[in-house]
Amino acid sequence: MELRLSVCVLLVLCVTGSVNGGRILVWYTEASHWINMKPMLETLVDRGHQVTVLVPSASMFMNSSEPSRFQYEPFNVSLSLESMEKFVEEFLQFFMYEMEHMNYIQVYFRFIEIMKKNFQTTLTLLEGVVKSDTIMKKLKEGNYDLLFSDPIYPGSELIADILGIPLVFSLRFSIVNNWERLCGQIPAPPSFVPASVSKLTDKMDFSERVFNFLFYALQDIIFDQFIWKEVDKYYSEVKGTPTSACELVGKTNIWLMRTYWDFDFPRPFLPNFKFVGGIHCRPAKPLPKDMEEFVQTSGDDGIVIFSLGSMVKNVSSDKANTIASALAQIPQKVLWRYSGKKPDTLGPNTKLYDWIPQNDLLGHPKARAFITHGGANGVYEAIYHGVPMVGIPMFAEQPDNMMHIKAKGAAAIVDFKSITTEDLRNAIKTVINDKSFKENAMRLSRIHHDRPMSPLDEAVFWIEFTMRNKGAKHLRVQAHELTWYQYHSLDVLTFILTIVLLLTFIFIKTCSFCFQRCCGRKKTKTKAE
Amino acid sequence: MELRLSVCVLLVLCVTGSVNGGRILVWYTEASHWINMKPMLETLVDRGHQVTVLVPSASMFMNSSEPSRFQYEPFNVSLSLESMEKFVEEFLQFFMYEMEHMNYIQVYFRFIEIMKKNFQTTLTLLEGVVKSDTIMKKLKEGNYDLLFSDPIYPGSELIADILGIPLVFSLRFSIVNNWERLCGQIPAPPSFVPASVSKLTDKMDFSERVFNFLFYALQDIIFDQFIWKEVDKYYSEVKGTPTSACELVGKTNIWLMRTYWDFDFPRPFLPNFKFVGGIHCRPAKPLPKDMEEFVQTSGDDGIVIFSLGSMVKNVSSDKANTIASALAQIPQKVLWRYSGKKPDTLGPNTKLYDWIPQNDLLGHPKARAFITHGGANGVYEAIYHGVPMVGIPMFAEQPDNMMHIKAKGAAAIVDFKSITTEDLRNAIKTVINDKSFKENAMRLSRIHHDRPMSPLDEAVFWIEFTMRNKGAKHLRVQAHELTWYQYHSLDVLTFILTIVLLLTFIFIKTCSFCFQRCCGRKKTKTKAE
Fold first, then answer.
1. Gene3D superfamilies given for it (chains A, B) (predicted)?
2. Chain B residues closer than 8 Å to A17 by CB
3. The CATH fold of domain B23-252
């Protein structure tokens, strides 16, 4: 069969009566998370809702003084923008350069140190909201219908609880999925659901399953000790009553997960988890004139797009030269988003840009490959347009993301720490010349597009649903009301086992008693005889 | 906020190029299952697909000689229509009348006997397909793109495997969900997912959780011994190689579950399970003239609609009189689908009909309550139109269905075996006069309508998706490749436990050795001294 039906799902909004839009409060976020959230917020404004975004004074990516269709609620934090930028720089330095010179023990302790610092930073940001009477008064008087949050910065669950309004999360992942699993109650059997940041796929051999199991367990213990307890203490202090942060997170009405089965491995989930990966992707727009001219000079060889994301704008001079040298050896033209010093080895086929229209380039007919750090936004744009990838992942979920695409046959991975010109050149050549990479990228693209509803429409539907119904109670599983041992039926098993043992004991005792009586009699009889 | 946005999602089909529809083979089914399947098949025909339905010669509800938009593939079975009807009569008699005079042991053995007979009947029907060279040749030459099946009669998974085509299931449930759980790998923690036909809800106390746990376990053992082993044997014989029926069922590409969170309790599920309950519901059409006139005579009191479903057309004279007497005591006008002898106690407010346009009556503004046997089709029509229910469940999942609606506050239940005039009258009066029942029915109706896509559109989308993509591999969890102990990480746990025990043993032994050496030396020293 050749089914050439192309189904376009057109969302037609029939607005009846007067449009009294909802009032949506948006939690502060940063970097690619903010980039991802914007299209949803734009659509919500288009649909008549009032969107108010909380912006800390030390925000690097959110600018409350910029003209915008959103309302901003700026708040002061006892952190300067410089200190935030310094922390990010320190964070990047560790993952990009320091780690390679450290042993495992050193990496572990430095990582814990950075995590603690990160946690302190997030609490300082939160203080700007909860400890400010003015802001809290404004939020209470705002009569918001919903709090919408990318929970990279915690606190939104606390504020939603204080304001008594529904909460919708938008997230790619939490470390080892501990928010989704432990608070959201999403099932995650370690036998086929790899923990996030574990770099595993859903196909695990025995040793990988052991690793995954221990990874879940150990991270849960570490998080419980270092993070959850601290957050509980803070929330309890703010609320004035003993408060469990995880319980508040568990009250989230809808979890908009920024993945889908084009990118993620199929797994069990719950009715209030919606998979809306690729929310920000859209068809390519025409390129700026000079860029289009450069692209056209590539001929049949086409172009390679190269970006390390919104946070990493340049790399060390050594790495830059290694990379530039590899790029110089491929026949494609390369567009590299790079703000550092021009590398000496830069070939004539490579052009550096402070900024590139990444989505438009990936959607260009001449796009042959995408060299990426593996951030979810970029990876999704490449999936949307069916472009094979070379991943140079660095931190957070980037190695995981690239491992997903590699497992699906649409990417090669190069290690940033030990990168060589040869490795990178070979990887680019492989994903371009080995047809299977393009075929697999196109397969993922087909899966991405061939779904009942676009991810943006789906996300907006569930946000509006939550406002219309003041929550989404009918999607909340009863598991939230169970303890962990009740959830796993351990109390039931113990009870049944006790009964079985008791019955066995009684049976044995009865048999033994009967046997004794019987033998006893026989013996007495024999004696008597 | 008063959000008066009413969102209509309009599915506009843009057909590009020539429409080369798919070829869909439909597995034979019966009674309400066939009624439910028809709207999907009609829509598939509307969308340019060719639909061929397998019809056994002993079918009660499917008529291959009737003019229809489907193609029929009739096949002979060594069973007469009369014997099928006699078996159904025997089945109904047991559940409706015999059971009340039996003790638990008698019920159990009679039930097993009926189940075995039912199983033999299904195998006899299947023989009509697999043992007929003509039919098998026709099916092979039919070049079908998909097998679509309500698996109430097993065998479709075998034929899909033999023909090498994708399989889509449409089902309300299997007993204790053993197909979905054991073969489809859907997670079902017994702590909050009640086994189907258990009459439990998702809120269980300790004793109910013990019951649910044992119910799952015991039914699984019984099914394994009485059903699965037999089916495996039969399938292996047909295929000529050892074949696991459950493995074949597990290859189902899409499971279209005929429930949704308006009716079912929220639970974990998998990406290839789609919840499309209410697929056959539609807005009410005008009633036949004389029926409308009768309905209008009800005034403000409105009407009560009463049907015991497509299989039960009449009841014993005793029960009929008890029921008619209760109906005579309510102020509403009653429309009762009943083909038996007119009961003596029938009041002037009640009219008997051989057939009623149930959906149109439930959608009538004068509908006040629906007296139902609790079949999923009728229950869904009542949810669609927001009508409170009085359930008189009898067999299969009917008691379960009514328990769901009762738990959601939109129904009262009356026991058919011990029904009294007073019970029924009070139940009807309660659901009509206690406003909470109507409010809850309307809440369920709102949940039913307020979803991103209509259930029919969603079902059709996934059927076409499976054809377009020759399956739905990207939605299949890796759990299918694991054994039960691997799935639950029992091998991993055993390994970790062994290591821990071994390390503890080595540690103790080392300590003990050191202690002995230490004390030994001291002793020797003391001795020497």
1. Glycogen Phosphorylase B
2. 4, 6
3. Rossmann fold (3.40.50)
